[in-house]
Amino acid sequence: MTGCLGVKQDVIKQAHPAVLAITGPHDTPGVMKAVHQHLPPKPHDPYTDLIGVKLTPPHYAYLKISEGCNHRCTFCIIPSMRGDLVSRPIAEVMQEAGNLVKAGVKELLVISQDTSAYGVDVKYRTGFVGGKPVKTRMTDLCRTLGELGVWVRLHYVYPYPHVDQVIPLMAEGKILPYLDVPFQHASPRILKLMKRPANAEKVLERLQRWREICPDITVRSTFIVGFPGETEAEFQELLAFLEEAQLDRVGCFAYSQVEGAVANELPDAVPEEVKTVRKEKFMLAQARISAQKLKRKVGKTLRVLVDEPGIGRSSADAPEIDGVVHFKGGKAGEFRHVTIDRADEHDLYGRLQ
Ligand code: SF4
């Protein structure tokens, strides 16, 4: 097991005594040591030994553009573990992206803790990509990644105003028309308690504008229900927002305390049973919205990236977290066209063309 929580080895060992090794974030040598310990290396191969650790299938890869975060959302302990935002130089990110594409990757998933803040810490320093000056900034990164000719999908995009500038790139087909924006709530009071500087009304206006510029855009988001102090009226406000926003993909978490989070000190904790009921209501409402939205795709022909024979993803589907497209045939890693025959709450079903 590796990642943020890896720094708390004892917590993991207690819950999962069978885990062989635990490492913290960015500890590639630690991961490799554990892998070699439990899976001794094969004889040296001068070709494959030069390839770094990649834990995804050959046709897609995550591209981490920065580490850490300058926000201090009260429910989150990531900044205390990973520190403030540190952006990777644009040249280095593009070098990695180019290498992945040369190695056969067809889809790059841009990740970070806060993708839209990319470059803020280095004052959008100019780097050089293929001899051309490019700024360490999300919009420039998207434009440059869009020239690689593969799918580029953006995750964890905090809705800063400049995010609007990447929507035309989506409309032009340079990057996928897909935006993963964690809104977390819709009530201004709860957002304030969460220390998230968002305003639900403006979010709705912007969603409308994004859809006008790029009608095919898929918007994914995550929400927390049962945050300390959330009243029934504020939960209803969230449900009303959900109806209005008509988001394509939504994840929902019932609030739970994380050791060290500021929100633990907030009064009026919501009882567990109330959180569970709210989460169920929220997911039911979204399932209906999602089913209606997917139904509109019946009869259309979509380009999909095949993950394995019979299963692929369209521009609207990020791996692991969204739905998929089912069909007969296909080979992993190839782009195909699928005509959609039917839909359910999460997935589409169709025929290969
Ligand atoms: S929830 Fe996201 S934006 Fe907020 S502090 Fe944590 S990593 Fe940063």
Explained architecture:
The chain is an alpha/beta fold. Helices cover 30% and strands 20% of the residues. It contains 10 helices and 15 strands. The longest helix is centred in the C-terminal third of the chain and has 24 residues, at 272-295. The protein is globular. The model has no long low-confidence stretch (mean pLDDT 92). The protein binds iron/sulfur cluster.
Mean pLDDT rating:
92
* Tally of individual helices: 10
Radius of gyration: 21 Å
> What is the rounded distance between the termini?
41 Å
> What are the bound molecules?
iron/sulfur cluster
Share of residues in helices: 25-40%
Largest sheet features: 5 strands, mixed, barrel
By helix and strand content, what is the structural category? Answer: alpha/beta
* Unreliable residue runs: none
Largest sheet: spatial strand order: 11-12-13-15-14
User: Strand-and-helix sequence, N→C?
Assistant: HHEEHEHEEEHEHEHHEHEHEEEEE
DSSP E strands, number: 15
Beta-strand residue fraction: 15-25%
| C-alpha geometry | globular
